[in-house]
């Protein structure tokens, strides 16, 4: 990969607009998903168990829609109509949440948000297709697109709570509806009317049957994402209640973590020029285990900052590399591979919150952070199993 190839997407207007579409579509999820537990329990006054009903509904629709969309896109379906369906689902989800009715949240908002998650599959697939047909370096452009998702999740959750504090919880959903309208406008401007992203054709026919390498790669993404979410969900309470740090500590930790994350997402493609993505992911899993144990031992703010920097480093390397790694086992069916990758992250986020609550109730929040090491360890072991699986050898994978 030449320096010219690595920087090409930064001067390509269409490539940048695709990244903007990834950011805006991801912002809808980032504004609503982390807020829903607080909204259901604290604002509407329902029991914590009801969050599980919402999560199951959202998870089911997300898995089904992402899988179906992946199959349809690989088969040559047009991108824009499917993306508009996702946008309609997001708009209806936010509108239903305004009513404050638990049945509407479970029957409309949760499925709508699950459908919204499939939008990432569509836009990432189009981004990869555009990059391939216009000579953009795949690892670098994938990392650039993944960075925009991280930026959305850096900004929108905090913005949602800020809006709720100043204007009321329901304005969070009003803002989400406005974001969806912006999302649709950008999609109309960016994605050509008849755009498709059909399955890549191979010079040699690929064997039919279960693609074990792809499922192993998606499992790696799930376990490391689960470990990250388990740690992240326990951190705020752990720092203040168990470590005895000041109230500003969680926000400061998140800022340091996110800054390091974005830096290493951008550095990952450069590292992939000399080190294979598999080795980068292996290093990320080892660093994750170290980071979790450092964070769980924090007693002072400087120690917290060291842990946050380690956390941002491992997750930045993971986020900047894993999408390309998963796609390397696609056998030309990039949309399907992308759908599995996005579902692995979505499911990890859903399962991690109740797991954190159960562990914290039994043994404390620090133990939840330490046990995240097992998720990273599982990802490390699965990396060895992928060595025997045939990949498309994208930049050394």
Describe the structure.
The chain crosses the membrane at residues 15-41, 47-69, 81-99, 105-127, 139-163, 169-191, 212-235, 247-267, 279-298, 304-326, 338-359, 365-385. Helix 2 packs parallel to helix 6, helix 8 (212-242) packs antiparallel against helix 11 and helix 12 runs antiparallel to helix 13. This protein folds into two domains: 9-193, MFS general substrate transporter like domains (Growth Hormone, Chain: A, Up-down Bundle), CATH 1.20.1250; 211-387, Up-down Bundle (Growth Hormone, Chain: A), CATH 1.20.1250. It starts with a helix and ends in a 12-residue tail after the last helix. It has helices spanning 3-8, 13-43, 49-74, 79-98, 102-133, 138-167, 170-190, 212-242, 249-271, 277-296, 301-327, 334-363, 365-385. The longest helix has 32 residues, at 102-133. It is globular. With 397 residues, the chain is an all-alpha fold. The protein has 13 helices and no strands. The relative contact order is 0.15.
């Amino acid at each position: 990969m030449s320096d010219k190839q690595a920087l090409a997407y930064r001067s390509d207007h269409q490539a940048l607009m695709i990244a903007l579409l990834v950011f805006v579509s991801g912002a809808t999820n980032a504004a609503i998903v982390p807020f829903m537990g607080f909204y259901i329990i604290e604002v509407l006054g329902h029991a914590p168990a009801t969050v599980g009903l919402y999560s199951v509904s959202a998870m089911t629709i997300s898995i089904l829609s992402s899988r179906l969309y992946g199959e349809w896109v690989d088969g040559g379906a047009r991108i824009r109509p499917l993306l508009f369906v996702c946008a309609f689902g997001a708009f209806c989800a936010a509108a239903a949440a305004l009513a404050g009715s638990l049945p509407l949240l479970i029957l409309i908002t949760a499925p709508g948000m699950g459908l919204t998650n499939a939008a990432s599959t569509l836009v990432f697939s189009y981004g990869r297709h555009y990059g391939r047909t216009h000579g953009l370096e795949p690892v670098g452009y994938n990392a650039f697109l993944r960075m925009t998702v991280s930026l959305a999740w850096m900004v929108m959750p905090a913005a949602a709570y800020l809006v709720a504090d100043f204007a009321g919880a329901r304005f969070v959903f009003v803002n989400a509806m406005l974001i969806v309208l912006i999302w649709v406008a950008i999609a109309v401007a960016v994605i050509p009317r008849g755009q498709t992203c059909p399955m890549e054709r191979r010079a040699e026919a690929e064997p039919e049957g279960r693609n074990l390498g792809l499922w192993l790669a998606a499992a790696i993404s799930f376990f490391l994402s689960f470990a990250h979410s388990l740690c992240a969900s326990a951190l705020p309470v752990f720092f203040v209640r168990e470590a005895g740090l000041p109230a500003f500590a969680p926000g400061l930790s998140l800022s340091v973590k996110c800054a390091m994350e974005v830096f290493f997402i951008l550095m990952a493609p450069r590292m992939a020029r000399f080190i294979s993505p598999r080795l980068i992911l292996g290093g990320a899993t080892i660093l994750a285990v170290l980071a979790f144990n450092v964070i769980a031992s924090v007693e002072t703010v400087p120690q917290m900052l060291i842990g946050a920097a380690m956390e941002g480093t491992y997750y930045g390397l993971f986020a900047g590399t894993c999408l390309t790694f998963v796609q390397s086992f696609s056998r030309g069916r990039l949309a399907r591979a992308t759908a599995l990758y996005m579902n692995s992250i979505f499911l990890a986020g859903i399962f991690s919150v109740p797991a954190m609550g159960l562990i914290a109730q039994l043994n404390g929040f620090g133990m939840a952070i330490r046990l995240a090491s097992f998720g990273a360890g599982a990802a490390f072991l699965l990396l060895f199993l992928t060595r025997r699986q045939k990949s498309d050898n994208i930049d050394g994978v």
